[in-house]
Design goal:
Largest sheet: 8 strands, antiparallel
Number of strands: 18
Strand content: 25-35%
Helix content: 25-40%
Order of helices and strands: HEEHEEHEEHEEHEEHEEHEEHEHEEHEHH
Number of helices: 12
Shape: globular
């Protein structure tokens, strides 16, 4: 019998016993703070506990305004100040029940962090050099291969593109598990990814089942070393470096910790991004304080390696700084936010992103979802050089796809569009062109 395997089994059983003797306790408190609902989680401690709790709160669309974390020894105790997306405390009984049930289930689970088994669809992981039109080509290939895209998330950072796409068979509506067909999908997608000569680092992977999507995207880009890439061929791309990101790491010799300080512009899911990176780099957070009640967020972590040692070299310190900066910048959305909401159909994404490409738009981030029979898709777009898009270009794209189903969620462009509309009018020309293209796209039907 394998000695190491036997010891691992003993450790696993011991962990389960500790959890059974000390079941997790989740308390939701609406009286202690005027501004936020307090969520306290007490449970047996294990590697990844903090990430799992932050992941649950983030997936419930809660905003964490403060957090106080302590996990010294065998016990894990966290207090999170949370509000809803409108900045209000949580009073809805159903939401409170979901918080308690989700956190208790996660804290008592012994599964790997973020793994969610599914037999409903097939997941595709893609990573390669980003370039204008790449997403359009990927969606077009999948459409030609009779794959129905039911969900996807696409990130771009530092000239790299990472994506997790969820597909079903167009005819059966189920996952694709035929080996030959999967091999063909991988081969054609890899051909698209290496179209610009990125043969060494372009990768595709296909599996039935999913990992937590955003967790997986962090892992993919971290493994791809996007944090230290400066070999981009697109040096002319304008990247918004005005967004504050300051990360410092120093050792607290007397207590045996390394202290990490993060200060940056606040945004949704920021805490998830930083904790995800620390976890994937095999650091354990023993104490932490997070304050994010204004335009800036402040995070302070006391960490050690999983073996209990602090950071031991200047090279390692610099690498951690770069990785945290990259994790924060990955989540910063650049470009105009476009929301495409309509009845779902096969080929919708292929057609919409083709129109983006034909009008010189480049997708920097995308979130694709299917809710019932409707497609709910979000795209952040720039021009092909990574610069802001002219409002007239956005309006031209909206007229091609449909003003009613492609909405601009960007105050500056909405204002500019309103000003432009007073200067010129395309009137019936755009309306007739829009109706023709919508008919071709299958988004409206003939009245005959």
């Amino acid at each position: 019998m394998d000695h190491h395997g036997f010891l691992a089994d003993i450790d696993d059983e011991y962990e389960k016993l500790v959890i059974q003797l000390n079941p997790p306790r989740v308390t939701v408190d609406n009286t202690s703070s005027r501004k936020a609902t307090l969520v306290q989680v007490d449970s047996a401690n294990r590697q990844g506990s903090l990430l799992e709790v932050v992941q649950v709160l983030t997936d419930l669309n809660l905003t964490i305004t403060r957090a106080y974390i302590s996990s010294d020894g065998e016990w894990f105790m966290d207090v999170f100040h949370v509000v809803d997306q409108c900045g209000n405390k949580i009073y809805d009984g159903e939401v409170i029940d979901r918080i308690q049930q989700s956190l208790a289930a996660r804290a008592s689970s012994s599964q790997s962090v973020g793994i969610q088994a599914s037999s409903e669809h097939t997941s595709i992981e893609l990573i390669g050099r980003d370039r204008p039109g790449l997403l359009s080509e990927i969606f077009a290939v999948l459409s030609d291969l009779k794959c129905n895209i039911v969900g996807a998330e696409v990130w771009t950072h530092n000239s790299r593109m990472a994506s997790v796409v969820y597909i079903k068979d167009e005819e059966s509506g189920g996952p694709i598990d035929d080996g030959d067909r999967i091999g063909n999908i991988k081969r054609l997608l890899r051909y698209i990814l290496v179209g610009d000569g990125d043969k060494r680092s372009a990768k595709t992977a296909i599996s039935v089942g999913v990992t937590h999507t955003q967790r997986r995207l962090h892992q993919m880009l971290y493994a791809d070393r996007d944090y230290d890439r400066d070999d981009t061929k697109r040096e002319h791309v304008s990247v918004d470096r005005s967004k504050l990101v300051v990360v410092s790491v120093e050792n607290c010799t007397e207590k045996g910790y390394s202290m990490v300080n993060v200060r940056c512009d606040d945004r949704p899911k920021l805490l998830f991004d930083t904790v995800c990176t620390l976890t994937d780099m095999q650091y354990v957070v023993f104490h932490a304080t997070v304050i994010a009640e204004g335009p800036e967020a402040y995070q302070e972590y006391y960490i050690r390696h999983v073996d209990g040692s602090p950071i031991s070299s200047e090279g390692e310190r610099q690498r951690l700084v770069l990785c945290l900066e990259a994790a924060i910048r990955r989540g910063n959305t650049e470009g105009v936010r476009l929301e495409l909401c309509c009845e779902d159909r096969v080929g919708l994404l292929s057609d919409a992103t083709r129109i983006f490409r034909e009008n010189g738009l480049s997708v920097t981030r995308a979130e694709v979802a299917t809710r019932g029979s409707r497609a709910v898709n979000v795209f952040y777009v720039t021009d092909s050089s990574g610069n802001p898009v002219n409002s007239r270009t956005i309006e031209a794209v909206r007229n091609e796809i449909g003003q009613a189903i492609l909405q601009v969620k960007d105050e500056m462009h909405t204002k500019a569009s309103a000003e432009d509309s007073g200067k010129f009018s395309l009137g019936s020309l755009f309306r007739s062109r829009s109706e023709k293209l919508l008919h071709n796209l299958g988004l409206i039907r003939s009245s005959s």
